[in-house]
Write a structure and sequence with these properties.
With about 475 residues, the chain is an alpha/beta fold. It has 20 helices and nine strands. Strands 1, 2, 3, 4, 5, 6, 7, 8 and 9 form a nine-stranded parallel beta sheet that branches. Helix 6 packs across helix 7. It binds iron/sulfur cluster (2 copies). The site of one iron/sulfur cluster has 10 residues, from loops.
């Protein structure tokens, strides 16, 4: 039985409910009256149910599809302005006991180099990341209770937060590690993590079990119920995601939104972020083996429909995607991107030798952080290195009320400008700096509250004079 309030995976991601949703969407994909009603509801910015969003995703009427894209663009502007938050992944270890068939870190892969960063390695990696200008990391590690126990992850987080190189600092560490116990989630919370991210990969139980034939990750219920345990452990910012290409995208889309509805129904707060990775080539992995790949146009429509369905949830895209695709989906709703990512263990400090492959997937966007920052600004976006909410204790529903009260322009916007100014002062190239300074001058005028505008301008002057780390 479908029940969004249940704590059992098979009840809140109920297979029959997903099938019924897909049937309803298929039957109504040309029902223009219903589609217009759904679009009108979406325009009120209150989000959509999984059934309603599934109808929009299936809609083929060209005028309505245009409206979907326009609305996604408008909501993106209303809720996130022209800011794009920047982060980098940091791979701690690729030891893994799981058998995920789409990932080169699966335990049977004998020709990948297994590596685990020591605390000294982490100092080198994080210093290299700080020297690029990064302030926000997402740490990643395979599941291996012997090589990567929770104590190792906690030690790494402590080390990362302790490194202060020149004006650099990592101010927010998001964590993407395997599903674990409530007790371990409490320890991660105590260690001061930002968001706990766990990709579901696929919500389709049978496919999930086939794609994860061995290892603890094989347990569908334990994996799918992880976010409930994380929230029970005190983590109130959680990040969902599926790996598009493994299963039929309509199934994943409806289930992803059902998961979001479940978190809202049980914990009173939906997911902080949704990531939208697509399967990519990697050592030992040929994406063509998976026959559910999606076109760029479908991918863009998925992003637009997610933006409309859950306007308060941040959307993340990685360097798996090319510059061209990133440019398209940033407009439609993506609010966070990674920049200058290395998807190998130890990849920031040292360039990999050809025969020393340890990447999790091939990166499509290989530009430097400075190039990404310059590109965003030339497109009219403000690259933001802001980490203020987590440090001010504005997580979970407190963060959501910031979004819902429309305070973003008085909070995120000045924070973005101040952190961009820090980046320009400390790390930007001579070509990038003047573009940024001009942008900051122009964007200060867009802060509605005159008092905040004045303080932000003063802070920016102080950053110019050498001070750091201001925030609202
Ligand atoms: S996806 Fe994660 S759990 Fe699966 S093999 Fe790769 S690193 Fe291990
Ligand atoms: S103020 Fe909070 S919500 Fe806004 S960009 Fe900073 S961390 Fe994100």
């Amino acid at each position: 039985m479908y029940n969004p309030k249940s704590l059992k995976a098979e009840e809140f991601i109920n297979h029959q409910e997903v099938l019924a949703t897909l049937k309803y969407a298929e039957e109504n994909k040309n029902n223009l009256e219903l589609i217009d009603q759904i679009l009108n509801k979406a325009k009120q910015r209150k989000g959509l149910t999984h059934q309603e969003a599934a109808v929009l995703l299936d809609c083929q009427d060209s005028q309505r599809v245009r409206e979907i894209f326009n609305l996604a663009e408008q909501l993106k502007k209303d809720f996130y302005g022209n800011r794009i938050v920047i982060f980098a992944p940091l791979y701690l270890s690729n030891y893994c006991v799981n058998g995920c068939v789409y990932c080169p870190y699966h335990f049977k892969n004998k020709h990948i180099t297994r590596k685990k960063l020591s605390q000294e390695d982490i100092v080198r990696e994080v210093t290299a990341l700080q020297d690029m200008g990064h302030k926000r990391l997402a740490i990643e590690a395979g599941e291996d209770p012997v090589n990567n126990p929770l104590e190792y992850i906690l030690e790494c987080i402590k080390t990362i937060y302790s490194i202060k190189h020149k004006n650099g600092a990592i101010r927010r560490v998001n964590v993407n590690i395997a599903a674990t116990t409530v007790e371990n989630y409490s320890k991660l919370k105590e260690a001061g993590i930002g968001t706990y991210i766990l990709f579901q990969e696929t919500y389709h139980k049978d496919s999930y079990e086939k794609l994860h034939p061995t290892g603890p990750k094989h347990n569908y219920a334990y994996h799918t119920e992880a976010m409930d345990r994380a929230m029970k452990g005190g983590i109130d910012d959680v990040g969902l995601g599926v790996l598009f290409g493994l299963e039929l995208y309509r199934y994943e889309f409806a289930s992803l939104l059902m998961h979001a509805e479940h978190l809202e129904a049980v914990h009173g707060v939906g997911p902080h972020t949704i990531s939208v990775p697509r399967i990519k080539h990697a050592d030992d992995i040929d994406p063509n083996v998976f026959d559910n790949g999606i076109s760029d146009d479908t991918f863009a429509k998925i992003c637009a429909c997610i933006r409309i369905a859950v306007p308060y949830t941040g959307m993340i895209i990685s360097t798996r995607e090319s510059k061209v695709i990133r440019e398209k989906v940033i407009r439609l709703g993506v609010s966070q991107i990674s920049g200058a990512s290395r998807t190998s263990v130890g990849g920031y400090y040292e360039e990999e030798a050809e025969d020393d492959k340890s990447e999790q997937f091939d990166v499509s966007d290989k530009r430097t952080l400075d190039e990404v920052v310059k590109w965003l600004m030339e497109l009219g976006y403000i690259p933001s290195f802001c980490t203020a909410c987590y440090r001010e204790g504005r997580t979970g529903d407190r963060f959501m009320s910031l979004c819902k009260n429309g305070e973003i322009l008085n909070c995120c916007h000045p924070n973005a400008l101040m952190t961009l100014k820090e980046y320009l002062m400390d790390y930007a190239s001579n070509q990038t700096r003047p573009i940024g300074d001009k942008l900051i001058e122009k964007e200060l005028d867009n802060i509605p509250n005159p008092k905040i505008k004045k303080i932000a301008a003063e802070n920016i002057n102080q950053i110019e004079a050498g001070k750091r780390d201001f925030r609202f």
